[in-house]
Amino acid sequence: MPEENRINLCDLTSPALEEFVTGLGMKRFRAGQIWQWIWVRNASGFDAMTDLSQKDRAALAEKAYIRWPSVADVRVSSDGTTKFLLELADGELVETVLIPSDAPMRPSDLTVRMTQCVSTQVGCPMACSFCSTGKLGFRRNMTVGEILGQVQVARAYMNDTRPEHPIIRNLVYMGMGEPLLNLGTVIDSLNTLEHPKGLAFSPRRITVSTCGIEKGMREFGDSGLAYLAVSLHAPNQELREQLMPRAAKWHLDDLVSALEQYPLKTRERITLEYLVIAGINDRPEHVKQLARICARLKAKLNLIPCNPIPGTPYDAPTPDELLRFEKALWAKGITAIVRKSKGQDIEAACGQLRAAHEAALAAGVGACGTDAGEEA
Ligand code: SAH
After folding, report:
1. CA distances from 210 to 236, 272, 294 (A)
2. Has residue 68 got a pLDDT over 60?
3. Can you give the pLDDT at residue 107?
4. Which of 273, 340, 353 to mutate to test ligand 1, by most ligand atoms within 8 A of the CB atom?
């Protein structure tokens, strides 16, 4: 049967898979076996599922399939950051990045831990002026199988190519797209990620980043499925309207009020992300405004030096300027930490690789795979 009349089992939540399997006349516990084939053993078809009868496998193949994204390009930065450009079933391209953790837990511990940044939409409707994905516009929402396919594909690639078998320890929903605009699917993907018989991620190792969408923020908070990060980027409404015109439709005062009410567990804090753009949002008055916002919240502030996108007037601050800004925030009692940009040599900022790939295609040059692993 053609694929369009069947369903991708990677898109189903655990209860939905049970329903599907019992609907085919199979025993309920078979769903658990299939779940493990998909999420633990990374199966890409039913033939491998040798603990199922031939008949059951044929019944599954009749109505369903398993499909992961395919790797269109891999780039490895000199700092170990690895960026994948993935192709989805309809030919759309999305990005996911693996970032090595800075330091081992103990000097004797040689395990390499990585944080993976995943995309939730192809493109993004928010059109933030500094963001490469924003320039693409919105194409479509990603499915559960596509969102988590990023994890499965990266995990398999790491196992096959890296002798040290790095562990994907943390996940951040900070790639292409606005997660709260694809909330139902994002919540399904978190439930699947955290399923104890599957990938078994703890909610304490997952952060979902949003530019602040009124509808959905509270529902996400009540789910308790991951930490929240909010892309603030501007400490007053006027500047936010300039940098993030669509996100700023929810007034900054209302966003901050909603964050005051946001349900937090003990010791949990909201992460505020602040792209530092030279001369635009790093002036002394911005320090004061940020201090007023932070005083109202249980939050920590992550400072991210802007990665300039071609065609935008935004520049990164110099290291001195950044340090001055950071110190001025500390002087106001704000917990601000500079997050070093990684993978700059591989265009690792949000949406940049897809943009480079498309520019190369437009110019008739294949961008794919040419420097994969070159610097590893
Ligand atoms: N839509 C969500 C998720 C996208 S990730 C959100 O807005 O949070 C957004 C993050 O990508 C930003 O917080 C910032 O950390 C990063 N980012 C986007 N454009 C960037 C740029 N030009 N340079 C550096 N980081 C950028």
Report:
1. 18, 10, 17
2. yes
3. 66
4. 273
